[in-house]
DNA sequence: GATATATTTAACCATATGGTTAAATTACCA
DNA sequence: TGGTAATTTAACCATATGGTTAAATATATC
């Protein structure tokens, strides 16, 4: 078997397939069980390496966790920057909303451990949480201010109803998060009631994005124009 | 100090101030740290009783947790039943939505550990979760079917736009949940951006209820009628 | 006062688990 | 081929923590 030279994180590292394997395994484990519930042995097993290697690379469970938090913050940061840069110059509101919702949902769909880990931090009031949020806010930069301005403009133009932007952001966040952690509920709901729920189809995410976008933009009421 | 006779739960119990104190402490601890992160010693401290007493009453950490899950399921069950019975015979859709949103938000506001504990169960894929969800669905009874029918009717009458009820329920749940666990984010957002956020005012919950109700019913778009 | 239960105290056990270590082995590179 | 880093093995330590126990004390009921 061909192996590459790798170095523990405390030293400069070049290649990193093994380190990466450990990080991925740890993410999954932390995502499922949280910092307290996670087991180093289980992480080692998932990564198909020896437990000693975890400490060789990351020193301790807490350190490993911190590295992962770092990478998560970075990933979200990058997602936001990318999304902002892809945004057309003067998007209409609906496009802006869809873009925002879409980028988060698609990102989290690829790495569901991220919302899981963040949610746990939130619930526990973790000490690392503020730093992560600050990094994310930092990535958004003037985003909130611009959003606020856009809102003011649209409101004054009578295009949208008087709306508290904070309430709106809060709501969109909730709708995005529930898309992932809510799955089990809806599967049970399906079993018990026979309701048609398509949580596992390919089109589900796209439908979800559309729904949130439309709910936010139009509401469910039919407008006679 | 006057004391009352109490008996451990394995025996029939009459009065229960001490048992109750332990249960409340445990709820808080489990809510903040989850089953794995919770410490029996910490629960004892919170309840201002001795650690031995926890085992005297509840035998083990897991048993204590199960008792709490039971009580949570029961409380939600009762909340739903109460809300359903208070519902007017033929409420208009907006009233029905407000009633639903309101009862959950006000219930959870009184006991924020409940959404926290449930969320963690959800994230971990806990074995007890299905039973709880089933109990809740059981409490709702024909609710979903009625909701579906109401929806169909309103849609056919052209009163609301074609809407996937599951997507809607999912969204409402997300918006309700985020009301509680999202707090820290918005406090940081406030610190960093100076955005006016009133997460701690008396009126916040009422505003939140109004917002969700209106978003779901009207959407944010101004309708020229 | 006698009895039963509630509660505290404090020492203690068992175990899971994070973490360490040293030696052996393997892979890579110069 | 020799040297260096990667990885495994396996034994081991230290500690936190869930859980137990037995005796002492308090409290209420009869």
In short:
The first copy, chain A, is mostly helical and 225 residues long. Helix content of chain A is 72%, strand content 0%. Chain A is globular.
Write up this protein:
- Chain A is mainly α.
- In chain A, about 70% of the residues lie in helices and about 0% in strands.
- Chain A contains eleven helices and no strands.
- The first copy, chain A, has helices at about 15-35, 40-45, 50-60, 60-85, 95-110, 115-125, 130-140, 145-155, 165-180, 185-195, 205-215.
- In chain A, helix 4 (about 60-85) runs antiparallel to helix 5, helix 4 (about 60-85) packs parallel to helix 7 (about 130-140) and helix 5 runs parallel beside helix 9.
- The longest helix of chain A has 26 residues, at about 60-85.
- Chain A is globular.
- The N and C termini of chain A lie far apart (about 70 Å).
- The structure holds a DNA duplex (30 and 30 nucleotides).
Task: Name the descriptors.
homodimer; mainly alpha; 11 helices; 225 residues; DNA-binding
Instruction: Return Rg of chain A in Å.
Output: 21 Å
Major beta sheet summary of chain A: none
Give the quaternary arrangement of the chains: homodimer
Structure classification of chain A: mainly alpha
Strand count of chain A: 0
Chain-averaged pLDDT of chain A: 85
Could you list the spans of chain A in which at least 5 consecutive residues all have pLDDT below 50?
1-15
- Assign an overall shape of chain A: globular
Estimated helix fraction of chain A = over 70%
Percent of sequence in beta strands of chain A: under 5%
Tally of DSSP helical segments of chain A: 11
* Sequence of secondary-structure elements of chain A: HHHHHHHHHHH
Distance between the termini of chain A: 69 Å
User: Largest chain-chain contact?
Assistant: A-B, 68 and 69 residues
